[in-house]
Amino acid sequence: MNHDKNGAGRPLSRVVAPWVRTRLRAAPTAAGALALLVALAACLAGAFPRAVDRYEDAGLRRAFTQAQPTHTTVLVQAPAPDLGLPAGQRATAIRPAALERQYRQILPTVHSPLAVDRAQSVYGVASGVNPEVPDAFLPRPTGLPACVSLFAPSGLADHARLNAGRMPRADRTVDASTPEVEAAVTAATAKSLHIKVGSVIHVPGAGRPPLAVRITGILDPRDPDGAYWSTVPRMRSPFLVTIPSPGGDPPKYWLGTLLLPQEAAPALLGTAARPFRYWFLAPDPHALHAHDLDRLKSAVAALESGPALQRARAVTDVNTDISTGLDDTLGSFAELRSGIAPLVSVAAAGTGTVVAVVLFMTGGLAADRRRAELALLRARGVSLPALAGRLLAETAVVAVPAGALGLATALLTVPVGRTPYAVAAAAAVTATACAALPLRAALEHRVVRATADRADVATERPSRRRTVAELTLLVLAAGAVAALRRRGTTGDQLIALAPVLVGVIAALLLLRLYPLLLRRLTGPAARLRGATGHLSLARAGRARISAVLPLVALLTALTTAAFGGSVLAGVADARNRAALLTVGADARLDSDAPLPTAAPARVRAVDGVRDVAAVSIDYQAKPVDGQDSVSLVGADPSSYGALTARTGLGAFRPAALASRSGRPLPAVASPSVASEYGTRRPFPVRLSDGSTVTVRIALVRDATPAVSGGNFLIVNRAGLPSPADRPTALLLTGDRLDAGALRHAADGSATVHLLAAERARYADSPLQSGAGHVYTAAVAAGAGFAVLALLLALLRAAPERAALLARLRTMGLTRAEGRRLLILESLPQALLAALGSTLTGWATVRLLSPGIDLTTIALSSAQSPLSEAALKPDPWSLTIPALLVVVVTVGVATAQAWWTGRRGSVQELRAGDGR
Questions:
Q1: Do 616 and 725 fall within a single domain?
Q2: Parallel, antiparallel, or unpaired: how do β-strands 180-186 and 147-153 relate?
Q3: pLDDT (tens digit, 9 = 90+) per residue, 809-843?
Q4: For residues 752 and 467, which has the higher predicted lDDT (pLDDT)?
Q5: To which H or E segment does residue 609 belong?
Q6: Could you tell me which of 795, 823, 840 has the C-alpha nearest to residue 894?
Q7: How much is the average pLDDT of 506-511?
Q8: Most exposed of 189, 319, 347, 785 (fewest Cβ within 10 Å)?
Q9: Across the chain, which distance is largest between two alpha carbons, in Å?
Q10: Residue 745 within a domain
Q11: Domain containing 739: what range?
């Protein structure tokens, strides 16, 4: 407040504009840039945990779908009421009213987070054994009578539609002595067992005449894949059961299911079916979440052998048993996730570190830009807490709304997932952005000075505190790398920070070397003609020590990007390799019998096909002296040799298979076959058709395109006897191949396998594909923030450089020399970051590769001929980000020099002086 006096002698108050509003009006562009940066960072931070939740939940649901209800439904089963009870009580105990009451009492025993899908759950009475029925109209494939399973399920009319007839009915007087009941069958059962509406099936009785079951309706399941029909698959589809026998054709018989109305369940007490009561509780996959996995396991364990089982027995029967394969499904999913989550945490740690460095760098650049202003405030008596508080309020006014906007965008973009984690991540970003400027200002201005001291990168000596901090980081990095190499990616979060710590240590080391490198270059530059080179090095050496913060951000981000890119490239390479080992070419046509003679020519004429290698494969060929079968491949040496060269699978020269009449066929063998039969002497091989050929192993190769197994022999197809010389498979090379066209060209007699389809099979799990997408996004975000750090540093120095260029132009500096000056001034840090990141990324991958296994994220649980996927340095991931940094640096410097050249020197000098 300023106090003056008016004519009456009273004090006159004039309100001074608040600090925050003044600062925002003075630098609206800087405030807008900060808001944009915080909003983007908060959006990414808020979206990350929800994206992880989304793909993990999708992976858990996929695991449930693949496991089928037979392994996920909770089976609660109780025997029929005790025979010692009166007949009326036994019948009452299995009537619908009693079973429904017990069902409602059992439901609360299922604890959260495990939820029951009541629409697919079912209860009722079923036969414990499947009695043979004597009716002659039922089919007998090998003379054995058919067997039937009897079910009296709840909600039959709601889960099926009539195909023929009507729904079965029963009155409330049905008991163990009832002579006849009605039933229905599914259309599949009716077709296989020759059942029609009106058919009567006689179920053997227990101490009474057979129970006649009259079929009144044929049903079609409304949701045949749902838990209602699929928990016990024979409810919807009959089975042709095979009885194991030592020789000849094994005996077979049909097993079908008769669906009785619930009110007819007491009739089963009078049969030899040994009925039991059941309550099948289907879990609701849409209510399951991967982050509740441990609680899900506990809930399942409580059902199978814990308190939930005891409560279920209390409301049903002391002999009630609960079983489910749900724990196996959850265990398989947990194993898959445990192999993928650490790699994603590595990407998250790297990107999070880069974002934090960029935010702190933004605060540091702002503090450096306002160095003189803040030093003057301290000199005029502003306390350090007051100064930090003003800067915090000034930053919070911009950062908090921007963070809220970024969080809202993340919640709308990724609508599924845990909100508290997203809020916490966005709040952490916002708090970091708010604290960066006050902390940096408080650190630099803790001592009151009349003017701000200049700290040049070439002359400033590292403090003891910095040395201690660097040594601490070095110890942490060494420990993290050692732990990761020893234990792999399973462990604490320090292991996830290993690549980041290696990048930070490399950045700090380069910062130590940077002044030495500049001094080394000063001497050679001084001997050059002209002042541009010498002046650019002097300018680079007189850069403020705070200007090296972008180097830390750049090197950390580029190292993380190189590591992440190598991971993604390793995953892609493993999938390509596994698919190639399985298919052997871009496409493959296989047939159990020899293909038509014209098939290779017709297939070669299909669009996209460039080459065809026809081979005959005998999987049952057996060396006369050996015990095991080998895959004998008969191939044309020219086309097959070219294919091996293109695919890199056991390449050999066609001359190696050249055969001469009367001599053993030269063969290419796998290492196992070569070690067993040797490479010096020929040996006979008996083919599956009884013919024999004599071969001699000429070459040994680890793999071959035609077969993916480890035991194979490759010979010249022309040397095989007929019909073994006729091709049974075609290996195709080409682009954009169509499976339908290839199958049609082979007259539909072959099975088509495409390399692209096989490769996609290894990534069909939402857990894999989702983790890959999140990892890619994290690496891209880290690289983007690295470029942003570079741009911020260049733009921060733009006014000063423009003023310098204008001054030098008044002294005779040409535009070309000015352009070279700006480029050469910017290049030292850019080249240091580029070269350092390339070497650091390579070293990081080489250091950490022994502890990182990409097999889980690359190949999942799918059957693959590739047993292991290792992490290797990817040249593109190492070089492209580094080159991008240099290109951006040169581009910005060139653009600034061009723009400055268009403006007048006087205007630039005034602008520079004003700043």
A1: yes
A2: unpaired
A3: 777 777 777 777 777 777 777 787 788 888 888 88
A4: 752
A5: strand 609-623
A6: 823
A7: 77
A8: 319
A9: 133
A10: yes
A11: 592-749
